Amino acid sequence: MADPSLISSVTEMNDKFLGDIKCPYKLYIADSRMSGAGFGIFVREEVPAGKEVFRVAVPTVSAVESAVDVCDNCFAWVGSNDPFRAPIELSVCGSCKAVKYCSKGCQRAAWRRYHKEEYKIYREINAHARKAKEFSSAIRMLVRLVVLHQHRRLTDKQWQAILSLKSHKALIEQSKALD
Ligand SMILES: [Zn+2]
Ligand SMILES: [Zn+2]
């Protein structure tokens, strides 16, 4: 039986998720016209180049590719030449070696939110692997989501938003079959 708490239509998604976003433009969620791109957020009017559309203070979940020099918590990038900031130095998390942080503050914030549970998963996997494994950002994001959900650190609204994402399972299976 279908879960009645699941969002069944795009109209419902628009009502539920866009109400809280502060934005000078009229936003709407729709199926993208790009094939296979899934749902996206669109604006109704033309936005001048370089204008900010909206800003999310803290994303529900994020993960940075391990190979790039970006803080996994605040996305500070080593290569940015912001004159108002001291040069960015990243340190690799000693517990899992999978994430980098720009400061003790970022490391602490990530630790509290999900890393104290998630690092054990990577450590456990690597304890059984012959060579330390590299985890893609997509995998790390899924692990993070499960940790956040299991420990009830997501609001109902956030979890519903995730459940209402379009599934690409059929596409993935199709591409696997072609390999
Ligand atoms: Zn940071
Ligand atoms: Zn770690």
UniProtKB/TrEMBL annotation:
Family matches, as PROSITE patterns: ZF_MYND_2
InterPro entries: H3K4_H4K5_MeTrfase, SET_dom_sf, Znf_MYND
Domain MYND-type: 71-119
Keywords: Metal-binding, Zinc, Zinc-finger
Gene3D superfamilies recorded: 1.10.220.160, 6.10.140.2220, SET domain (2.170.270.10)
UniProt superkingdom: Eukaryota
Full protein name: MYND-type domain-containing protein
Lineage, broadest ranks: Eukaryota, Fungi, Dikarya, Ascomycota, Pezizomycotina
